[in-house]
C-alpha cells in the first residue's frame, strides 16, 4: 500500500520562522532557565485566572526545546534523560502547568522510530520545525485504564475514529494529537491525529483545583480520518521497564520536584521577610525560632533527597538506553520508582508545611502560595504511588519483578 503523508495543516505559518535548532545540552538548559524566568512572572496570575499559556508554549517551540530529544540520525540533539529531566524541573519550578504540558510530547517522540524510515523522517522533521505532540488517549469513564470506548474503524488508506477523550494535556497547544488503539490483531498502535483535521474539537473544560492551565480537558473525535502514514506500532515500545517507557515517570518526578523547590523557596522567603515572631519565641525573628529551623531543615532535606534520587534515576535510564539489556532496564525502572515516590512526597510535604510554618496570613490570595499545594496534590495523583510502593516491596522482599504493563 502506498503511504500518504498527512502534512497539509501542520506547516510553519507564512512569515513565521522555523524553530531554533539547539546544538548542545548546555544550550538547552540555558534556554529553559531563561524562559523559566519569564514564565515565573505571570505564574500566579495565570493560575488565578485559569489563563492558558499559549504565548509561553509558543516561546518554548520557537526556542527549539520541544525538539531536544529528536534522534541524531534525523538531525536532532538526542538529549540525555538527565537533560530532559532537568529541563522539566526548571520549567516546573517556574510554572508546573507549563512544565506538564510537554510531558506527553517527550514520551511519545520515540514512537516515530517504530514506523518506516519515511514516517520517522517526516514527523521528526516536523518536530524540528516547531511542531508539538499533545495527548488524547485517556477517557473519563469507569473502565480500567487502557480500556477505550472510542469507535475505531479501518477504511481505505487509513482509519476513522469517533469518541470523547479526557485528560488531554497539551492538546490545546499541539499540532499532533495521539491516541492509542488496537488493530485487527489486537496489537496496540498509536494514531497521530492532525490537530487541525476535520472533526477534531478541543474543549477547555479542565476544572481541577491544581495544574489549572494544563488544558487537560476534553478532546472530541467525530469521524476523524487518520491516514495509515500517521499510525505507528506502539506495541514495539516494549513493557513498562523499557527506557522508552520510563521517561514518563522520570518527567513526572521532575515536575513534582520543581513544585517542591519553588514552594521551598517561597517558604524560606516568607519566613525571613514576612513573618513576625510568635509570643513564646525568645528571638526577635521568626526565622530564628528553634522549631521553625528544625522543621525547615526537615522539609529542605526531603527536597534535596528527591533531587539526588531524580538525578540517579536519570543516569540509570541513560545507562539502560546505552546498554539495551533487560537487567539494566529493570534497575532503571526501580530507580525511577524511588525518584517518583520521593519527589511526590516532597512536593506534598513542603507545600503543606509552608502554611503550618508561616501562619494564617500566608493563605491570603495575594501571595498565591496555595497554588503549590493544589498543584502538588493534583499532579501527584497522576498514577498511584501506592502501587509503586507495592512493586518495590514485592521485588525487594519476594524477588517478583513488576508486570509488563505496570507503571513503576
Automatic annotation (TrEMBL):
GO molecular function list: oxidoreductase activity
Q: Does the keyword Iron apply?
A: no
Q: Which UniProt keywords apply?
A: Flavoprotein, FMN, Monooxygenase, Nucleotide-binding, Oxidoreductase
Q: What is its main location?
A: cytoplasm
Residue ranges of the Acyl-CoA dehydrogenase/oxidase N-terminal domain? 31-130
Give the SUPFAM superfamilies listed for this entry.
Acyl-CoA dehydrogenase C-terminal domain-like (SSF47203), Acyl-CoA dehydrogenase NM domain-like (SSF56645)
Q: Where in the cell is it found?
A: Cytoplasm
Domain (Acyl-CoA oxidase/dehydrogenase middle) spans: 151-224
Q: What is its EC number?
A: 1.14.14.21
Q: Which reaction is this enzyme known to catalyze?
A: dibenzothiophene 5-oxide + FMNH2 + O2 = dibenzothiophene 5,5-dioxide + FMN + H2O + H(+); dibenzothiophene + 2 FMNH2 + 2 O2 = dibenzothiophene 5,5-dioxide + 2 FMN + 2 H2O + 2 H(+); dibenzothiophene + FMNH2 + O2 = dibenzothiophene 5-oxide + FMN + H2O + H(+)
Instruction: Indicate the segments forming the Acyl-CoA dehydrogenase C-terminal domain, all copies.
Output: 250-383
* InterPro entries, A to Z: Acyl-CoA_DH_C, Acyl-CoA_Oxase/DH_mid-dom, Acyl-CoA_Oxase/DH_mid-dom_sf, AcylCo_DH-like_C, AcylCoA_DH/ox_N, AcylCoA_DH/ox_N_sf, AcylCoA_DH/oxidase_NM_dom_sf, S04_starv_induced_SfnB
Q: Which pathway does it operate in?
A: Sulfur metabolism; dibenzothiophene degradation
Principal EC category: oxidoreductase
Q: Which Gene3D superfamilies match?
A: Acyl-CoA dehydrogenase/oxidase, N-terminal domain (1.10.540.10), Butyryl-CoA Dehydrogenase, subunit A, domain 2 (2.40.110.10), Butyryl-CoA Dehydrogenase, subunit A, domain 3 (1.20.140.10)
Per the record, the domain of life is: Bacteria
* NCBIfam families for this protein: sulfur_SfnB
Which protein family is named in the record? Belongs to the DszC flavin monooxygenase family.
Q: What is this protein called?
A: Dibenzothiophene monooxygenase
Highest classification ranks of the organism:
Bacteria, Pseudomonadati, Pseudomonadota, Betaproteobacteria, Burkholderiales
Amino acid at each position: 500500500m502506498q503511504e500518504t503523508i498527512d502534512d497539509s495543516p501542520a506547516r510553519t505559518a507564512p512569515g513565521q520562522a522555523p524553530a531554533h535548532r539547539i546544538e548542545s545540552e548546555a544550550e538547552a538548559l540555558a534556554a529553559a532557565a531563561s524562559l523559566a524566568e519569564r514564565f515565573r512572572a505571570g505564574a500566579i496570575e495565570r493560575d488565578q485566572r485559569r489563563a492558558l499559556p499559549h504565548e509561553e508554549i509558543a516561546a518554548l517551540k520557537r526556542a527549539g526545546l520541544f525538539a531536544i530529544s529528536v534522534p541524531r540520525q534525523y538531525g536532532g540533539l538526542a538529549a540525555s534523560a538527565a537533560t530532559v529531566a532537568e529541563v522539566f524541573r526548571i520549567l516546573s519550578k517556574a510554572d508546573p502547568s507549563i512544565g506538564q504540558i510537554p510531558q506527553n510530547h517527550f514520551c511519545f517522540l520515540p514512537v516515530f522510530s517504530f514506523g518506516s524510515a519515511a514516517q520517522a523522517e517526516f514527523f521528526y522533521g516536523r518536530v524540528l520545525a516547531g511542531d508539538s505532540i499533545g495527548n488524547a488517549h485517556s477517557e473519563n469513564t469507569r473502565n480500567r485504564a487502557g480500556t477505550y470506548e472510542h469507535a475505531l474503524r479501518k477504511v481505505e488508506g487509513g482509519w476513522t475514529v469517533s469518541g470523547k477523550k479526557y485528560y488531554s494535556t497539551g492538546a490545546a497547544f499541539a499540532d499532533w494529537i495521539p491516541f492509542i488503539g488496537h488493530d485487527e490483531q489486537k496489537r496496540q498502535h498509536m494514531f497521530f491525529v492532525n490537530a487541525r483535521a476535520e472533526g477534531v474539537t478541543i474543549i477547555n473544560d479542565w476544572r481541577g483545583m491544581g495544574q489549572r492551565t494544563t488544558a487537560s480537558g476534553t478532546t472530541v473525535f467525530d469521524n476523524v480520518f487518520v491516514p495509515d502514514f500517521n499510525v505507528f506500532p506502539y506495541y514495539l515500545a516494549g513493557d513498562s521497564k523499557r527506557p522508552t517507557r520510563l521517561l514518563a515517570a522520570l518527567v513526572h518526578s521532575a515536575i513534582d520536584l520543581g513544585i517542591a523547590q519553588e514552594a521551598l523557596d517561597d517558604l524560606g522567603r516568607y519566613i525571613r521577610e514576612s513573618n513576625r515572631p510568635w509570643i513564646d519565641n525568645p528571638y526577635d525573628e521568626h526565622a530564628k525560632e528553634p522549631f521553625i529551623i528544625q522543621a525547615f531543615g526537615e522539609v529542605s532535606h526531603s527536597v534535596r533527597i528527591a533531587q539526588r534520587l531524580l538525578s540517579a534515576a536519570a543516569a540509570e535510564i541513560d545507562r539502560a538506553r546505552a546498554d539495551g539489556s533487560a537487567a539494566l532496564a529493570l534497575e532503571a525502572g526501580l530507580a525511577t520508582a524511588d525518584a517518583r515516590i520521593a519527589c511526590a512526597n516532597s512536593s506534598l510535604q513542603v507545600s503543606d508545611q509552608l502554611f503550618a510554618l508561616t501562619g494564617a496570613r500566608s493563605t491570603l490570595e495575594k501571595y498565591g502560595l496555595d497554588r503549590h499545594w493544589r498543584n502538588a496534590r493534583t499532579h501527584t495523583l497522576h498514577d498511584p504511588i501506592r502501587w509503586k510502593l507495592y512493586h518495590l516491596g514485592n521485588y525487594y522482599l519476594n524477588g517478583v519483578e513488576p508486570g509488563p504493563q505496570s507503571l513503576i
